[in-house]
Each structure stands twice: as structure tokens, then as C-alpha cells.
Design brief:
The protein has helices spanning about 1-40, 170-175, 195-220, 270-275, 280-285, 330-335, 340-345; strands spanning about 45-50, 50-65, 75, 75-90, 95, 100-110, 115, 120-125, 130-135, 135-140, 145-150, 165, 180, 190-195, 235-245, 255-265, 290-295, 300-305, 310-325, 350-360, 375. About 25% of the residues lie in helices and about 40% in strands.
Length: about 375
């Protein structure tokens, strides 16, 4: 009897084991699928920030102490040079070709007073050929000036050689003392020289720039770090400014003499910019604030400090352009949203210009876990 029961128990147990194995295998498969779903079900959100432009000011102290440890101070050095130069400049001229012969005249004034002759003052030859001066001149007492004159009318008959001309507009007594002479008039066209204050100012500025270029090399010879000389740090003080220009005359050339004192500052500009931008995290403490600094936007003014008790040589104040985007995304609020809902919610946030969401192919919804949502910021 015992021998008959044992096979029957084995027959019952075998299907039971098979069912258990199948059940456990099915549960394991579900668990693996569940794990794979949650491990692969990730969302990537790409954000293009909407930057706003702001101007940020800064101030940096420059000290001659190289062991300085203050965060708002930078080691540097200054140099000074004094330069002089004299240069001759040409007066602006215009060539006029109107069919009228012209030439240069020398007007002599033998009287005891200066004589003003307005533009178009008549000059008359002995054979009654009439010419007129081009511009108003003042002939100094007991002196001479040169100016240009042209025939009153077109025609080759006005071509003459060396001649003396009277000024019929003056009283006869003055005509003996004040008169004009010329080496001749021709029909080649007349050149009008006009020496204005603007022409003189341009000449002075040109000469100053030449001295500035020369000063850069002189200053570098004095500095320990010549390559760090800031071009924008050069200050020019005019010690002497002389010229022999006669404003509103037809003077063809004039001389300008300049003596200038030029001072420059040598500092590491990259270190300067680093100090200038070093407190941005204090100004914008939010973790999701993004900065973009325009490196070409830095501009500053330098004040030189000659006497102080802190070993300071200069102070630099300036500003630069900063682009800021403050993006505050709550990933918990996006959990389980559809792609469409998430895009609408993100595009309504400030600081965001464009948004894109990448999801696995099998779903239209964001993961239910916040740490499965990845944020990528496009710079």
C-alpha cells in the first residue's frame, strides 16, 4: 500500500512546482519591465534662455604693493614722460577754374596803421585791367601780406606779367602807401587757401596723436610689465601749445609746437576683468540664473592717485554689459504632465525664449519621478 501512494504524491507536486516557476518568472518579467520602464523613461528638456541686457558698474583700486591680498585691489604701476615736437602743416586749399585768370599778389602797407581790405577789393593795373582779391585780409602797418586775386571778368586779355597794381578804393594819399605787386596772372586756375581754426585744431590733434604713439614706447621702457600698459589709461596734459597760424588768412603753411606730459598705467587687464565680475553671484544669488558677459563691452576711466597713505596709485571705475536670464523651473510641477501641457507651462515662464522636450517613443508623458527630468540650457 505504501508503494502505491508515493508515485501519486510525486505526480501532484510536479505541476505545482511548474505553476510556481511560471508565476515567479512572470512576476520577474513584470518587475524587469517595470525597472526598465522607469530607468529608460526619462525626459530631456532643452531651454533657450531669454537674456536681458544690463549694465554693471565696478570700481577697482590699484596698488603698488605686489603682496596685496584685498579682493578689490590689483597690483600695478604707473609711468610718466614729457615729450615735445614741432611740425609744419599744409593749409587746406581749393582749386577754382572759372575762366578767370588769377595769381598771387603781395600787398604792401607803408602807413602807420593796419589796413583791412575786404574780399573783392579792386586791384588796378596801369592799363586799367581790373582784378579783385579773393578774401578779406588785414595788411599790417609797415608790413606785407600775400593773397590771391582774380580778374574781374573771364578772358585771356587779363594774362599779364610782373606788375604793380593800385587799390582804387583807397583815397589817393593812401594809394601811394598801400599797393599790390604780382609776378603775373595766368589762366591755370586759382588755388584758394583757407586757414580756419578747424584746420589748426586738426593739426594740433594730429601732432598730439603722434606724441601719444611715441609716448607708449617711452613709457614701456620705464615699466616692469610693459606688455600690461593699458592703451586706454594714457592721459595727456598739454604743457605748451604754440602755432604761427593766422586764422582766416590764405597762409599756405603753418607750424605747430606741442609739449605734453603723458601718464600711463600697467595692470593685468584679465585680472581687472576678473575682479570686476567677481561679485556677480552676490548680485544674482539664484542657482538658475545664467550670465553672459560681453568681453568687448568693458569701458572704464582711470583716476591717478599721487599722494595717499595706502600705497594706491590709481582707481579704475567702469562698467560692462551683462546678459542675464533667470530661469526657475520646478521639476516636481512637471511630473506626469503630457508633452503639450509641459511645453505650455514652460513657455509661460519668464527667462525662457524657446523650449523643446524629448521623450521615449512609447510615451507622451513626462516621468512620474522628478529626478528623471533632465534640464539642458543652451548657451
Amino acid at each position: 500500500m505504501v508503494n502505491k501512494i508515493q508515485p501519486r504524491q510525486a505526480h501532484v507536486i510536479e505541476p505545482l512546482y511548474r505553476r510556481l516557476i511560471i508565476a515567479f518568472s512572470f512576476l520577474a518579467l513584470i518587475l524587469i519591465c517595470f525597472i526598465l520602464y522607469f530607468s529608460l523613461s526619462q525626459a530631456t528638456i532643452s531651454i533657450l534662455p531669454d537674456f536681458k541686457q544690463q549694465q554693471i558698474g565696478f570700481a577697482v583700486q590699484i596698488t603698488n604693493n605686489e603682496t596685496n591680498t584685498a579682493t578689490d585691489r590689483l597690483p600695478g604701476e604707473t609711468a610718466i614722460t614729457t615729450l615735445s615736437k614741432t611740425e609744419k602743416f599744409e593749409t587746406a586749399s581749393t582749386t577754382i577754374k572759372d575762366g578767370k585768370v588769377s595769381g598771387e599778389v603781395t600787398i604792401t602797407n607803408n602807413s602807420a596803421k593796419d589796413q583791412t581790405l575786404v574780399a573783392t577789393t579792386r586791384l588796378l593795373t596801369a592799363d586799367q585791367k581790373l582784378y579783385r582779391i579773393d578774401k578779406t585780409v588785414v595788411v599790417p602797418a609797415k608790413g606785407q601780406i600775400k593773397t590771391t586775386a582774380a580778374a574781374d571778368q573771364p578772358g585771356e586779355q587779363f594774362v599779364i606779367g610782373a606788375s604793380k597794381l593800385t587799390i582804387p578804393g583807397l583815397i589817393p594819399a593812401k594809394q601811394e602807401l598801400i599797393y599790390a605787386e604780382t609776378d603775373g596772372f595766368s589762366d591755370k586756375g586759382r588755388v584758394i587757401y583757407t586757414l580756419t581754426q578747424e584746420v589748426v585744431n586738426i593739426a594740433i590733434e594730429t601732432l598730439k596723436n603722434e606724441l601719444l604713439d611715441q609716448a607708449k614706447e617711452e613709457l614701456k621702457k620705464q615699466l616692469k610689465q610693459p606688455d600690461n600698459l593699458l592703451a586706454s589709461s594714457l592721459t595727456v596734459e598739454t604743457i605748451e601749445d604754440k602755432n604761427d597760424a593766422k586764422i582766416n588768412s590764405d597762409q599756405k603753411q603753418f607750424n605747430v609746437s606741442l609739449t605734453v606730459k603723458i601718464q600711463g598705467l600697467s595692470v593685468n587687464e584679465e585680472s581687472l576683468k576678473k575682479i570686476a565680475t567677481g561679485n556677480l553671484k552676490e548680485i544674482y544669488p539664484a542657482e538658475q540664473t545664467i550670465f553672459k558677459i560681453d568681453p568687448s563691452s568693458f569701458n572704464y576711466n582711470i583716476t591717478y592717485l599721487d599722494n595717499n597713505s595706502e600705497n594706491l596709485v590709481a582707481q579704475i571705475k567702469g562698467e560692462y554689459t551683462l546678459q542675464v536670464a533667470n530661469i526657475q523651473i520646478d521639476k516636481d510641477a512637471l511630473k506626469g504632465m503630457s508633452k503639450k501641457e509641459a511645453l505650455l507651462a514652460l513657455n509661460n515662464l519668464s527667462g525662457i525664449k524657446e523650449t523643446a522636450i524629448l521623450l521615449p517613443f512609447w510615451t507622451k508623458y513626462l516621468p512620474a519621478l522628478a529626478d528623471k527630468i533632465n534640464i539642458q540650457i543652451k548657451q
